Amino acid sequence: MAIHDLKEQIARLPEQPGVYLYANAQGDTIYIGKARSLRDRVRSYLGARGQHAKTDALLDEVTSLSVILTDSVVEALALEDSLVKQRTPKYNIRLRDDKHYPYLQLTTGEDVPRVMVARSVERDGHVYAGPFLPARLARKTKDLTHRLFGIRSCNEVITGRRDRPCLEYDIKRCLAPCVADLCSSERYAQAVDDTRLFLEGRTEELGQHLETRMRQAAADERFEEAAALRDALRTVQTLEERQQKMSSVALGDRDVFGVKVGPSGAVVQVFQVRHGRVVERFEVVAEAGPDADQVPGVLAAAMAHVYADQAPPGELHLPEWPDEYEALEQWLSDRAGRKVRCVLPQRGDKRGLIDLARRNAELAYRARFDQGPGTAQYEALETLQAALRLPQLPRRIECVDISTIQGSETVASMVVCEDGRLKRSEYRRFRVARGERFLDDFAAMGQVVKRHFARKVAHDAPLPHLLVIDGGKGQLAAAYESLESLGLVQLVAVGLAKKEELVFTRDHDQPLALDRHGPALRLLQRIRDEAHRFAVTYHRQARTQRDLRSALDEVPGIGSRRRRTLLTRFGSIAGVRRASLEELSAVVGPKAAAAICEHFARA
Fold first, then answer.
1. Cβ(131)–Cβ(103) under 8 Å?
2. Domain count of the fold of the chain
3. CA angle 521, 522, 526 (to 5 degrees)
4. Residue 44, in any domain of the structure
5. Strands 396-405 and 466-470: what pairing?
6. Which domain holds residue 131?
């Protein structure tokens, strides 16, 4: 598959949220996806052959991969949606779950506007803000407009002739435009203007208006109104923009630059933000040279290269001032036919997006110039598949280990490893035939394997691609006998002997010797050692419980209450043993006393 040519690049991907983009030989983007962990998600495609016809076609056509880091999964979702709309990859289905994220609607087309949640934007004269990801953010923002500005939340027809306001006015969540004596139309119109600035993300402008009105109210000795304006101003000043950086109305139209320079060269990442959304990302690479080791020089060269063939937006957000930035700004303005400003944001979401572009530049730098090794786990799985001739990649491996001392308190453990990672939530442990004593581990292994996989079959649980048995030929044969009795003849099992670290299989008389320093054997050893640790821990617990059990537990007719009574009266088991029949009869009665004396006489 063509996807396997990208294996080394996939192994170096970070375990962070983001968007991945597959391209074909012509450089066209053919699929865009989002991921909570880029490495895990993209790596899953290496073993995805045969799951779906569309996936197979995608894997055959992929020749290159690029990724864009984000700060959260919801940001990745917003960016994926924007890129899919922009590039229309042929293997994507836009809005695959048909879920539309909400907007907030300020009904400026009404005489007395409200703030409402809307699922789409219409051309109806109202003001819309959003979309809000996650959806609960829209409701929280709507609630904030009531508390900060007193926008009404009711559905009444407002005439101003109501006798008294409702409870919303009393709890300071509405200005009560329904009562003309309490709220004039001018005052409510001012609250609507403040709400509009707030929803559009123009918090700096809103803060200036609130401060001016607060000072004027204080000067006019309208102290209650001044206090309310003060509280609103403090909230606006401390409230960070809650909408994600990848989709925020506050960002407008601008390009955002991130730079990474190093000894091998430099990489510049450019995020194109249009109408508040990141719609495109591209990069400029400079090889090592005298001008490629300083950010200002790299930025100036990159900006000249990027805007040689396209007009720049009104603002460029940069991490540092480029060389000769005043002359560069004038050149950009001439290219655009309007004023173009270079800005160095220092805080907030604008600075956050620059940091995100820088992190993407660092990732691109490592992918292009750093040749680190791939992850050992995935290489181990492929080595195991080849060595054991497995029909598919052994992404799920289960391992069983028996722990016992001379057949006493025999227990077992089962651990699970998926994609090279141990899944502790799926560990299981077993008590093996309580009270029986086995001559060897073979029967114990057979019993545990049969119980475990019988439960899987009954509950239609996923079967492992490979079962690892801690032991040699004997344990492996017992395991296969149990699997065959359940009809699981297709399941592949191997035995891993300790000491020589040889791998036993059913199809070979001689064990396989994997590379002692290779990732495949190290992975098997790690899984086997974890199963052994888990089994030994459980065995110690079982022995401790056995040792804590009282000798009186074996006496017929002596339950927990009588046992406590005897131990309280005589102080210990030894005291009970030394007591006479008469003394015991006085405590538990003659029949139980006779049973106790008979038990200790036999012992």
1. yes
2. 5
3. 115
4. yes
5. parallel
6. 103-201
CATH code of the domain in which 421 resides: 3.30.420.340
CA 558, 562, 568 angle in degrees (round to 5)? 135
Q: In the block, which residue shows the tokens 């950009």?
A: 332
User: Which DSSP helix (H) or strand (E) runs through 331?
Assistant: helix 325-336
> What are the CA-CA distances from residue 194 to residues 175, 190, 200, 261 (Å)?
13, 6, 10, 44
SS (H, E, C) 498-511: CCCCCEECCCCCCC
Query: 102-135 pLDDT, tens per residue?
Result: 788 888 888 889 988 887 777 777 888 766 655 6
588: domain CATH number is: 1.10.150.20
- Do 539 and 581 sit in the same domain of this protein? no
Helix and strand totals (H; E) in the chain: 20, 18
Domain membership of residue 150 (yes or no) is yes
Question: In this model, does residue 543 exceed pLDDT 70?
Answer: no
Q: How far is CA 231 from the centre of its chain?
A: 37
pLDDT tens, residue by residue, 430-449: 887 654 444 577 888 889 99
Structure tokens at 386: 């080849």
CATH number of the domain to which 45 belongs: 3.40.1440.10
Q: Token pair of 254, please?
A: 């601008």
User: How many CA atoms lie less than 13 Å away from 243 in the CB half-sphere?
Assistant: 26
The DSSP bridge partners found for residue 31 are 22
Same domain, 353 and 267: yes
pLDDT bucket at 169, cuts 50 / 70 / 90: confident
- The CA-atom distances, in angstroms, between 507 and each of 247, 418, 512 are 57, 25, 11
pTM: 0.37
Judgement on whether residues 52 and 165 belong to the same structural domain of the protein? no
- Which tokens belong to 219? 């000067």
Q: Which strands make up the sheet holding 64-69, listed edge to edge?
A: 29-35, 18-23, 64-69
Q: Is 231 exposed, middle or buried (0-12, 13-18, 19+ CB in 10 A)?
A: middle
Q: Phi, psi (5° rounding) for residue 294?
A: -130, 130
Please indicate, yes or no, whether residues 430 and 556 belong to a single structural domain of this protein: no
In a domain, 227, yes or no: no
260, exposed or middle or buried, with CB in 10 Å at 0-12, 13-18, 19+? buried
Cβ atoms within 10 Å, residue 168: 17
Are residues 414 and 527 part of one domain? yes
Tell me how crowded residue 272 is: count the other CB atoms within 10 A of its CB: 19
Bridge partners for 282 per DSSP = 270
Domain assignment present for residue 19? The answer is: yes
Distances (CA, A) of 570 to 23, 286, 558, 562, 586: 83, 88, 15, 12, 12
